[in-house]
Queue: 3 jobs
Job 1
Amino acid sequence: MRRRQLLPVLLLVGLGAPGVASAGTFCVKPATGCAAVDTFEQTELQNALDTAASDGEASTIRLGAATYTNTSAVPFSVKDVNNTDPTTVVGAGRGQTVLTTSNTADVLRTDVATGITTIRDLTVRATPGAMHRGIVGPTSGAARGLTLERVDVLNPDQPAGVGADNVVSGATFQWIGGTSVAGASGIGLRLTGGNISLVRDVAIDAGIGVATGFSALPVLLDRLRITARTTGVVITRAATVRDSVVRIDAPAASLSGIDVQSGDSGYTANILNTTLIGPPDGSAAANLRGVGVRAAVNNTDTTQVFLERSIISGFGLSIRREQSNPGGSMSVTTRRSAYDSSPAKVTSGGGGSLVQDALAPSFGFVSDSDPRLRFDSPLIDVGEPPAFVASPGELDLGGDPREVGPAADVGAFEYQRRAPAVAATVPATATGGQVVTLTATGTDPDAGDALTYTWDFGDGTGAAGPSVSHSYAPGQRTWKVVVTDPTGQTATATGTIDVAAAPAPPVVVTPPPVVTPPTTAPRAPRLTRASLSRRRFRATQAGLVLRFTLDRRARVAFVLQRRRGTRFRTVGSLPTTKTLPAGSRRRAFTPRLKGRRLVPGSYRLVLTAIADGKRSTPVRLTFVVRR
């Protein structure tokens, strides 16, 4: 039942607030924009799906940027009750809205009686385990189906040896934009129904990329990027693989880029503008590099395979046509395809035929990891067999026009012959004779195109290279840089530079020498006529007077020494005076050191005058402290 409250009629009139979704639209928090009655908590996704199923009309469920985890024992399920109300589930974006599960093998199932269920703009994350699947569509039926738009289905932690179909559907199926990651042994996409299917702009990483079968109507696999461990595509019914790259990234004896198996008499498999790449060079011996295209008949069926404008690279065998049971027929025809067609690389046996129109296996890829064609690839403009016409609106794997130039290219990517672009950095002003740096940065949308740079400085001279230096004479000059790609297409940047005359050199006036009168460095002060009023006294003696004479203003420092045997040793210092004026000075002397009386013995008082950082010759006075 649709979850609604009975509200007073007056409250329902005129409440059509802006931004509130129309009937048939439900929000699951944190999604917003729905009426309160049509808004569900984040944990109530299945309740929202059930409400939409019984709503009696086509419904849309909005999901927010959050992870929706199913804790139930059954998967999230999209279904219908009235058989007439397809459901659309819309997320906030791939990687932002995530559906996952903690208790079930499947994350999401769709099983409507009629209509197409649409899942859009979200990520489904499966959990590792045997037969753990991400999305399971309807099992069959021409009147129902599943559409995925910009959907990622991820199970990267699926352990090796544990197979599962990451996405599986048996009814009408369409997947436009997204990713399927199924683990080392999983199948990225399995199509099991007998209805038309379209898969476009999907990246797949799995043990087996795509498995098609039991389809009486055509299956189109368009602009796919498949990385597989064992087989890129398995075909058992009518199917077309077009404008795609299939890469096998692990060595194995039984691997194949595309495996065509007889499953129904009279069907055709088309492999068009597809690039098949075997394990990396040096990763395995030839017997572990598998086969690019395997065509096998094991019953009495009659099957045809057409390999057109395609590339097979890096496999132990390019093509293997074989028959395990007599009576059937498997015919393989290649047209304008590049692969090693030597007898050691192509095997053919059993009923049927092998007809080859092979180009030399010289590909001209941008790099080992980038199968786009360089400007000098021999596969440019040579891929058009007789009467070939590109399908209306057909694009290559990069999303660019398929036929550029006099004929289509071979492989998944069409070399586009696009002009480069250039931006230059040049100072607006300079001074005559000054060396300035002129820098240009060129870009080319065609990968692998090396660019050349030609500069015209505007004064009859020039240079080559992306960064050059030049010095101008005064005046305004118009500079220009031309960037050229290997096909002769160019881009130009131009501008002006205003060059001012260099300023006249400054007049240097030499002033007369400055005569500095000699200065006399300050001399050290002198301290003389030092005496104590008594030379022998007790430590309790009072009224002792110390006298000395200074020849200039100075401070006086006092060091007290005591006789130890035949030598005097320093036992402390008396406070240094403030700066005293020149002349005869006197000050009281108390036989104490740091407040304590001096013990009986022989002492020496050392006086030093200090001024301007210089010291006088020390003057020593001896005295005796009696018992």
Job 2
Amino acid sequence: MITLQTIIAPEQAICSEPDLYYRATAPVRTAQGRFTLPAGGEITFDTYFNLFNLGTWMRVCALTGLCLELTATGRLEIRIHHLPGHGGKTLIYRHRQTLSRATPYRVDLATLLAGEETGLLALEILAQGTEVTLQDARFVCRNSLGKTVGSTLGSTVQKLPRLAISITTYQRERKVRDTVARLQRFLAGFAFGDQIHVQVIDNGHSAKISNSRRVSSYSNPNFGGAGGFARGLLEAQDRGFSHCLFMDDDASFQMENIRRTYMLLALARDPATALAGAMISNRHKWQIWENGAYFDGSCHPLFNGTDLRQPGAVQQMELASDQPRPATYYGGWWFFAFPLARLRHHPFPFFVRGDDISFSLANDFSIVTLNGVVSFQDDFVEKESPQTLYLDLRNHLLHHLIFARLERSALGTARIACRFMMRSMLRCKYESAAAQLLAWRDVMQGPGFFDRNIDMQARQRDICTLIQAERWQEIRPADLVERRRFSRLPRRLRHYLGLLSLNGHLLPFWNRFADRMVLEIKDRGLVFPAFGGARLTYLNSARSRGYRLRHSKRRFFALIWQMTLTLLRWQRQYGGLKQAYRRGYDEMTTRAYWEEKLQRSTAKVAPDTPDALNVRGAAAGTEPKPGLRAGRRAGESTGLRNVPLASGASGQAAEPPTGPRRETTAAPTTAAALATAAPRRLSS
């Protein structure tokens, strides 16, 4: 029998929310994965981590002989419920039994289901008369897995996938070492652990991970997540892996993630099957941040805000997750497993932000999600800054320039940039808006800009010069003094006042009579909480640090003027930019491009030799040469020159692709060029 999924208990260091694992009528003790119930107690596993999504497993995999196995001690009643897609639940199995640890108990689910392949399954245990300890429980099947494709005694033998787990890290030494150690311990006891290898791509040259039979570490130039995952992809291809799993270094997860992922990929009917892990915020470990997402003008995280403590909400989400996906569905790289055979494009050099979106859109994957396969990490509100907003706007514009299914008119695409900037300015985040204006102008330089700025060092310095007020600092008592008038208005009235007055920017003397507000971290990414305010103090999660922003009409209208000029240039250049990015994307997402940028040896290791599982890292991770051959090819193929976009400068249209390409610099689009739109200091 092959284990598909096990019933798991909370791990204090990762998630201690019991309602995500079980529901009980009496206190339950959990230790080392075991559940101990007092006499008369009931425990139900119709929860996010422990229900079995029959619909997803049967649709994605050709399962045979599905069963439930459990090991327990004591007299208990075993119940199994089927939750169909049309609501309600059906008790399909009920049996009383006295069990000992030496006698595992098996329930033939395939017979009970009688061909039913949709809905959810949930285990329930009732302790009868005495204390009961559930040692373990697991869903298993009779499929055969082997190293070759053939037939054994009438059962199809599926080829074992070889999975490379690729973790890109940058100066999170302790976190990545802990993750690698936990992975090694799990793989040592996992039935298919020998088919899985961990790759650590060390962009910070500081992780100091030792190579072993199960782990390889590679020193890599810091080209962000895009460069790190591109390196991991090259290593996985060269060493004969069939699948790759991208993971962030700041993500926490239970090892059951790896089991469920590997088994789903191993038994998948469709060789294009990929699995996208969900994300839960460390701020609210009971709430889904994203369970898959799609892109259209902005990122749309699916099931955002779902309360995983509520069984009905979990069941609704899981039943819906088995439905057809949007055409622009994608998986986040905090946990994304995919088949290398379906790879058509390597990552685009975004540095970070948006590389996972374009990767899913550009490659022919059939992406699914699975309950319990999830990463816990800081959400995007916690991470928001002028730099992340700069990076976000770049990738949003590029997706619409590159992919035909997302194509919009010039004005329709420009609305994305205008919306980004207006959201910032209405919250008095003028430095963020200036960074977003810089992002828009950088995109207008064509794909060669991304090649020249692959390490983002110059742009990071430029953005840092913009940031004076929007940085975390110590809070003074005076910053916490509030004066609320407009923010006490009825919600609808406050909403329309904020919109029609552009949050006071169209009203005289707004600084004199508008509100002074203190806003929590949950309000940081939203516009409405800022409506009615002229002085806004944003606090971090611990309320220990924050920053204060103040209304400024001068800054607001200076940015509006610069935004208008940029919009006019965008309108003129849009057709040429679109052609340039579609050609440049094809050239900058190739294996050859990343081989050159990473200055990596092209020598390959045979997939089944010991060296394939015990690879010596680091030697190939030298800093790249300053040559821009790939970027020049992209520029030459489109005929685009770098477009000067300094304040007041007129943009150049795309030139015909004839004659030599003249090299110019990207200097006009610097923070200095935006000084009139974003003075370096805010009045306090």
Job 3
Amino acid sequence: MPRKPKSHTPKKTLGERLGHASGWLPAVAAFLILCLFAAAGAALFDVNSIPKTGQKANVTGLSAQGTAGLGRLLEARGHEVVVNRLEDGPLIDHAALEIITLDDDGGTLTYAYHFDEEDASSASEETSSASESDEENYGAVQIPDPKRSKHVLSAPLGKVVLIVAPKWNAGRDPRNRYWDRGPSLVAKSNVTESLGFLSPMHEVKAPEDDKEAALKMAASPPGTKTVRNGDMLVTFDDMAYVVNRDSRLVVTPAEPSGDTNSDAIANELNKLTPTSEPMKHLWAFTPALGDSAFKTPLTVGAITALQSITGPNLQPVLVGPNGEAVLSRLIVTGGRAQPKVPVYLLSDPDLLNNQILSDPQKVLSALTLIDTISPKATKPGRVIFNLTFNGLSLDHDLLHVLSRPPFIGVPLCLLIAGLGLMWAAFARFGPAREAPAGAPLGRGVKILADNAARLMAITLKEVKLGPAYADLVRDLVIKDKGYRAGISTESPDALADRIGRTHLTADTFTDLKTRAGKVMTVHQLIDITLKLHAWKTEIQRAHT
């Protein structure tokens, strides 16, 4: 059985397949391009945006341990509140007050690295009998961050700096990320480690000889510590901060097991290791002896496990009934230069965190504390919350450079140029046109015709085309009137004259053709072609 021949149907173009929907393609393309520019602009100009950190003990935290409520209170009073994440500060003048809220995330600590090539190659062969001095001289040692110390002591962002010490472990519940986990106190050792940056730090180039460097490290002045960080020796004060909390020792009774002797032994062991239970009391703080910053006592209401911090470089400003230092002023010991601006340490963050929103007295006390330590001014000043101490800082890169003066003009010009090019493209090409019904001339045919015309113009033979154009117009008119070649006994010119006389044309074809053969210039050729076109138009109009 013979196979049926396959029908070859022409493939439809994309415009034919889409139909009327093809008219939406330019709009869709414009929308996508605008979204691209919008995304680039958002990434470029929002480099100092406030991060979404959830339950954190900083200005972004909404939990009880955060300070987002304080920021909103200050905004409601007319203060300009700025959240800074850039290491060199925001694009504004310095503020009246800079607030640094610390949490237990290691944002004020860094590591000093020193590895010797010989020790690194033979590390796998060493035994556990290595001395402690070798462990301190080589490897990674956690030290206060010199960059943080320099910021607080010599390059602050405010005329006054308030540092809030950590107290609570704030974070999400591991079982449900939408919940805040129960409050627990930060270990006292972590609090003292996070405050190590409050003393000056000195960096010098380390000797090339390791033994000489070890001698310099061992000869560190009393009360200081020197460690090696690469090719630098870092010296900082080894401050002995004392952290106290309002708590009591509680002996937890052992659960009865049925054995009298075992229960008695368990109870005796629990008496030897009592647990610390936080206490909640009403507190009122008075100005410290010899300090004139606060004129009247400050009543703050109930606080759980009041935290106080003392140290050789802390001068008390506000103290409790038993001398608990709640607010202290930072000083530099050893006859060295004092901080550039007044620096205060608030030992207990419960005086400023979101817990104050539950008690109007606490709100009033927090605002009074802020007003007292801030510079005196006729109107509320600018307040900067610095997040670079919370591990949320942004380093310098090309994006930040382009988003700040004087280079911000580069992305702006590129953005405007891109929008202009998009507008010019749509204005030039417009919507898609329908495909022509007939077979269009190929690109090669058009190029050949264009080349032939240019060749005639270069050889100055354009004037010789007059009779040929007259014959072309004559043939078009004869064909339009339905005459076919070879049927009429008349010559084509005579037939054209007869058609012209029938339609009462202004000129005869023979006369126009004769004049076309006598043209000498291009302008004369243009005139005669216009007359031939008018002769053809008169016949076509009379026919219609």
